[in-house]
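ugh ok so i messed up the first submission bc i forgot one of the chains. this is the corrected input, ALL of the components this time, i swear. 692 residues overall. if the numbers dont match what u have on ur side tell me asap before i send this to the collaborators (the ones from the other lab, u know who)
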Amino acid sequence: MRLPLNQRVAILLHEGIKGTRGKTGLSLLRYSEAPIVVAIDRECPGQSLPELTGIRRHVPIVASVSAALEYKPQVLVIGIAPLGGVLPDDYWHDIKDALAAGMSLVNGLHAPLSTIPDLKALLKPGQMIWDVRKEPPNLGVATAMARTLPCRRVLTVGTDMAVGKMSTSLELHWASKLRGWRSKFLPTGQTGLMLEGDGIPLDAVRVDFAAGAVEQMVMRYGKNYDILHIEGQGSLLHPSSTATLPLIRGSQPTQMILVHRAGQTEVADGIPIPPLIDVVKLYETVASAGGAYPKVPVAAIALNTRHFSEAEAKAAIAQTETETGLPCTDPIRFGADKLLDAVMQN
Amino acid sequence: MRLPLNQRVAILLHEGIKGTRGKTGLSLLRYSEAPIVVAIDRECPGQSLPELTGIRRHVPIVASVSAALEYKPQVLVIGIAPLGGVLPDDYWHDIKDALAAGMSLVNGLHAPLSTIPDLKALLKPGQMIWDVRKEPPNLGVATAMARTLPCRRVLTVGTDMAVGKMSTSLELHWASKLRGWRSKFLPTGQTGLMLEGDGIPLDAVRVDFAAGAVEQMVMRYGKNYDILHIEGQGSLLHPSSTATLPLIRGSQPTQMILVHRAGQTEVADGIPIPPLIDVVKLYETVASAGGAYPKVPVAAIALNTRHFSEAEAKAAIAQTETETGLPCTDPIRFGADKLLDAVMQN
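and heres the new structure output, hopefully the right one now
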């Protein structure tokens, strides 16, 4: 399942456009091919989305679902992704308004909404609630069999959560397609699933089946593609992170791309980001596990320079290359070709 | 919740006593203070449990629940733990017989049994089904706050699954208590939960909340104890393993103990166990994450020598000490004092 391309979409983004928790909605606004007709954020109605976010899509911002109805949306997507995935209390009113107005609902939060009687009662024929973060059925445990696939498997890994791993994997995927390769982007988070389908919501999978879910996904597509771009999750540096390890074990990557936000020095209060070359070593050590698995290189570094000017971005990229000896670029800003060249050389 | 100490227990262990999947039942037979009155295994009825397993508890072995009834059991525990946690088809008949005969059921497998209508229909007042592997309510994400606790936090880590991490943590806990310390064993798997309660079934927790569940457990007890012994799960070397990383991040261990089965050379088909000193480095690298977290030493090595003679065991221990430079013993065979001394010196 993915976000339908023939239905008009509204994105519920209260305090997400200017704030820090709007990752899902903003990524959809940046990347989705679906017709997004309106964004809803009570903090900034009437303001310009491109000016606030740099996203080049002209979508009006309104304060509520009622105000959004004039744009005739058919689907409401909950566009925030708070840490832990709990729905804020002040979102309920808008969600009920949307269902009462005949819209379907796409929910990427942990709490399933399709089973709540109050919401189910509002559904009329043709309306549905899609809870994206639901453990897939028929999972097993992983056996490292992705090693047997002939394709390249490129996994993005990060110094932190929310630094641009999905975007980097998407850019690598598009660059691969432009080169005429059979390329597949494999999403592992709710936003990627809304954009592309064909993946897994890894953080909703039980620990015992996490690597197995990744392996199942990679095995399903690996035989028919030249290169798989596996969306990374979390960070080996983040105190709450668990997802990186099953991604490495389940996908058995042939290369990793390290994603980092330029200038960021801590992953959380008091937890420093070590020099990038040490982070590279950490990921390579875990991937090869002292010799239990083949060596997997971090082939290049994707630098997120969104908050920098172009000159500052270029300086940060040059500095990162000097410090690490690895090719580096900002794939959102300058394209992913440099990263892809590095993948092919490894 | 834990296994009640005032009820007569039967353990369902078909193909588990001589086979490889009886870990839960055999650990209960080895360690539980509950009155276990009969074990059920159709492969070896009438045979001697001590002779088959080395466990010093004289419990009769019978072929079925019907045959077990003469020992008047009140609780049936499913004692097998197959990889992936699925109930074998040929177990259903015995489970239904037990419920029909008035017994309660303790289930450590992934599939919840308490919600199955056929089984619920058999329950009479006073009878219950305890699904041990259930995600606890009210979880959040971890923040590394266990770092602030003044107590020691000793985590067992392994070269493989099922090598003796729980047993090592239990032995360390008892040795700590004998020294007069306020010590707590914190189980993270179904067997430990049946034995001691007060823990979490980590492999049933969703990836997003895994480290948070560990942190919550450690924070709940850390202030009132001198030393916490946290039961390890999985292995950074195992292809299906995910649980070790959230255990490290959530518990913020002060020391680790590496558990290894003497003589084992592969974790799975074609995946070698590297030299132990490299495995030690791997765990220490992940725990400190290149400087993001304080250094956490692997203080000692617990060697599982169950399949060796005493002379062979002593030789293997001496060789491990020479190879790694770390203190080593088999805590089941020779007690955990040497390991505990090493924890205190670090």
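quick check: The mean pLDDT of chain B is 95. that seems consistent at least. The longest helix of chain B spans residues 310-324.
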